[in-house]
């Protein structure tokens, strides 16, 4: 296992001639939490979709554990991008059973991931009746089924109340000790500041900051400087 589980080199994505992501180069240390920050529409989700194979990069390179990314690496990547892929008429266990069947995984994984996300007591309650926080945790449980080495979470606290945010924050913090590296995207600075080891700040498709984060860093100031600078460069 290498020092870096993921690297992107000059990653670009164009949609009908318009650049959505421009020369994104990041390095994510193994067993760390990497926060990808940026305002809405900055290019965060597009970047994560390229890493997970949902979108094909226009140019650039993705390395997984030191080698060029291939679709086989998806066996080691779990992701929750946008809304959790849930069947509202099924219980938590039944939702997971659908995915263990597709992935040809043992049913023992269902109980294991339910314990990880603290959803073992939902019983016969259907997912459609879950709170937003419970739905997010079930979505993460689905992403954990294949025992990924890299977990990608796109705006996971969207729509959560303060209790749900706190519960999810504690869950995410627990993953590196279990051998799971996390990439977390968000536009909420305070949330990322509390859990990330390293951050990247993206605005207008350009990565303007990429470093470790330390206590006392003024993340809001950094964020505003990057966003303002990138907007000025775009309008020139």
From TrEMBL:
For this chain, one GO molecular function annotation is: ATP binding
Spell out the InterPro entries in the cross-references.
AAA+_ATPase, ABC_Gallidermin_ATP-bd, ABC_transporter-like_ATP-bd, P-loop_NTPase
Keyword Nucleotide-binding tagged: yes
**Is Acetylation set as a keyword in this record?**
no
Which ranges carry the ABC transporter domain?
6-229
The protein's superkingdom reads Bacteria
Transmembrane residue ranges: none
A Pfam family recorded for this sequence: ABC_tran
Which UniProt keyword terms apply here?
Answer: ATP-binding, Nucleotide-binding, Transport
Record-linked SMART domains: AAA (SM00382)
The family assignment reads:
Belongs to the ABC transporter superfamily.
Q: What is this protein called?
A: Lantibiotic ABC transporter ATP-binding protein
């Amino acid at each position: 296992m290498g020092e870096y589980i993921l690297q992107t080199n000059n990653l670009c994505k164009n949609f009908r001639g318009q650049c959505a992501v421009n020369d994104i180069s990041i390095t994510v240390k193994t067993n760390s939490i990497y926060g990808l920050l940026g305002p809405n529409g900055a290019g965060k989700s597009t970047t994560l979709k390229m890493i997970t194979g949902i979108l094909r990069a226009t140019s650039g390179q993705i390395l997984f554990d030191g080698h060029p990314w291939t679709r086989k690496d998806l066996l080691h990547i779990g992701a929750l991008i946008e809304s959790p892929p849930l069947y509202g008429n099924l219980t938590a266990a039944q939702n997971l059973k659908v995915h263990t069947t597709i992935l040809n995984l043992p049913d023992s994984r269902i109980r294991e991931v339910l314990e990880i996300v603290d959803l073992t007591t939902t019983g016969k309650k259907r997912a459609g009746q879950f709170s937003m926080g419970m739905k997010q945790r079930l979505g993460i449980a689905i992403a954990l089924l294949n025992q990924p080495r890299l977990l990608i979470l796109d705006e996971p606290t969207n729509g959560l109340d303060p209790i749900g945010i706190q519960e999810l924050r504690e869950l995410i913090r627990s993953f590196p000790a279990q051998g799971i590296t996390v990439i977390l995207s968000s536009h909420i600075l305070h949330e990322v500041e509390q859990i990330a080891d390293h951050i990247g700040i993206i605005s207008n498709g350009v990565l303007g900051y990429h470093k470790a984060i330390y206590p006392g860093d003024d993340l809001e100031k950094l964020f505003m400087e990057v966003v303002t600078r990138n907007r000025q460069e775009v309008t020139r």
